[in-house]
Structures are given as C-alpha cells and as structure tokens.
Amino acid sequence: xxxxxxxxxxxxxxxxxxxxxxxxxxxxxxxxxxxxxxxxxxxxxxxxxxxxxxxxxxxxxxxxxxxxxxxxxxxxxxxxxxxxxxxxxxxxxxxxxxxxxxxxxxxxxxxxxxxxxxxxxxxxxxxxxxxxxxxxxxxxxxxxxxxxxxxxxxxxxxxxxxxxxxxxxxxxxxxxxxxxxxxxxxxxxxxxxxxxxxxxxxxxxxxxxxxxxxxxxxxxxxxxxxxxxxxxxxxxxxxxxx
Length: 242
Ligand SMILES: NC(=O)c1ccc[n+]([C@@H]2O[C@H](COP(=O)([O-])OP(=O)(O)OC[C@H]3O[C@@H](n4cnc5c(N)ncnc54)[C@H](OP(=O)(O)O)[C@@H]3O)[C@@H](O)[C@H]2O)c1
What we know:
Blueprint lengths: L1 E4 L3 E2 L2 H6 L13 E8 L17 H11 L4 E5 H7 L8 H9 L7 E5 L10 H4 L5 E5 L11 E5 L6 H12 L3 E4 L3 H9 L5 E6 L22 E9 L2 E8 L1
Parallel strand pairs: 3-8, 3-9, 4-5, 4-8, 5-6, 6-7
Antiparallel strand pairs: 1-2, 1-10, 9-11, 10-11
The structure holds NADP nicotinamide-adenine-dinucleotide phosphate (NAP).
The site of NADP nicotinamide-adenine-dinucleotide phosphate (NAP) has 30 residues, from strand 3, strand 4, helix 3 and helix 7.
C-alpha cells in the first residue's frame, strides 16, 4: 500500500489504522458514524448483485482492518440478504487487536430490516459468537445460535433513532456502516455520516446495478478529502463531513 495524500510514501494498513480511533469521538446522543463503501468507476455498488465481486484482496483487508476500530458494524437487510455475513471479527488476531485497543473481542452486529426477511441460516446467525441487534417492525424473534435481540419500531425506522438507541442502550461509541446503498442514503440524508471510506475500483460495469447511494437527499451533502491510499490498483479515499 502507498499513501498518496497526505505525506506520500510507502505505508501499510495496520499503521494507517493504528492512529484512527473513532471510539474516542462518540457524541452524547449518538455514536461516531463511519461508512465504508466500494464503488466502480461509474458509481455502481455491485456486480451480479454482490459487492464482494468488486473487492480486491486489498479492499477485503481494508474492510476487515477497519472493523477492528469500531464497537459495532451496521448493515441494511438488503446487504445481509446479498452478502450473507458471518462472524464480524472472524480472525483471532483481529479480536486480539480489538482487545488491545480497549474494544470488546467481537463487534456488535446491527441490522436494520423492517420486514425481517433475513437469511437466518447465514453464519452470522448460526456460528454462535458475538451478538446481533436487529431494528425491525416485526416482533417475532427468530431461532438462532448467535444471540439476537429485536428492537421493534411501529412504522418508520428512523436512522437517527437507531443510532440514539445504540448509544444509549448498548453503549456504542463508534459504528461502522457497511451499506448498502439505501442505508447509506438514509444516513447521508440525515446528516449522520462523520467519516466516509470509499474504495474506488478501476472497473466500469454500466447496466442497472444500484448506485452506491440510493436516496433522495434534501440537499447535496459535501465531504472533505482527508486521505488517499493506493493498493492493488484500488484507491482508498477517506472523507470527513465538510
Ligand atoms: N458497494 C458497496 O460497498 C456495497 C455495500 C453494501 C451492499 N452492497 C450491495 O447493495 C445491494 C443491496 O442494496 P440495498 O440498498 O438493498 O441494501 P441495504 O441498504 O443494505 O438494504 C435495504 C434494506 O434495508 C432495510 N432497511 C434499511 N433502512 C431501513 C429503514 N429505515 N426501515 C426499515 N428497513 C430498512 C430494508 O430491509 P427489509 O427489506 O429487510 O425490510 C431495505 O429493503 C446488494 O447488491 C449488495 O451487494 C454494496
């Protein structure tokens, strides 16, 4: 990996992430919120319905490394259906790294799914490790090996309410949202994104795959570029709310 902005030169992911401590920036009423997304050159979020197909090895390492810096990892129901998540912190050395930084061994998995039509046979639910909180409109808890808590809303599930609940009830100081495009859109629309990690992969797909942000924004949202790295031909941009 090489750093392009600031201070160009060779670098590695671990030292890049070492100084990144989002859990020190919790707000009173919500956690610090970072979003990590990967985009094609034409702004698309997936190939053949999955974002995994877009990511290089460097991008996967970047995502797994980022997870070591957050109390919780949050996704929407569409992402859970497409990507079938497993244990969030699957590598023992990454659990160790979290503990050294004063974080719980496992990150809390957070899913927003109004209809609760989720793949409960996916490893996240069957593996038995960690904990999952699902914000939903349903109130029938699924049977799972991994402990799952439902937080039931009547009607609209507002992202700001979800974040407030995570801060207040779960003590979450920093949350990493891994998409997808609809959830990302809601967070941007609510002015709730503090950091944005965007991987730009050098491929154009065209077609009708979703864009990385699918939402009507009340106004344009502006971010400031604070870092740019390169590995395997991917650009790893880091933006902060302007
Ligand atoms: N490029 C990337 O970085 C990236 C990242 C993640 C995902 N993806 C791709 O994006 C695609 C999925 O897109 P998506 O936009 O459907 O993903 P998404 O944002 O993860 O999921 C949208 C779904 O989340 C639930 N949801 C989100 N906000 C809600 C709210 N406020 N209230 C109630 N339910 C809410 C709903 O699920 P229910 O239908 O369950 O109610 C909704 O259908 C997949 O192809 C995936 O591979 C790409």
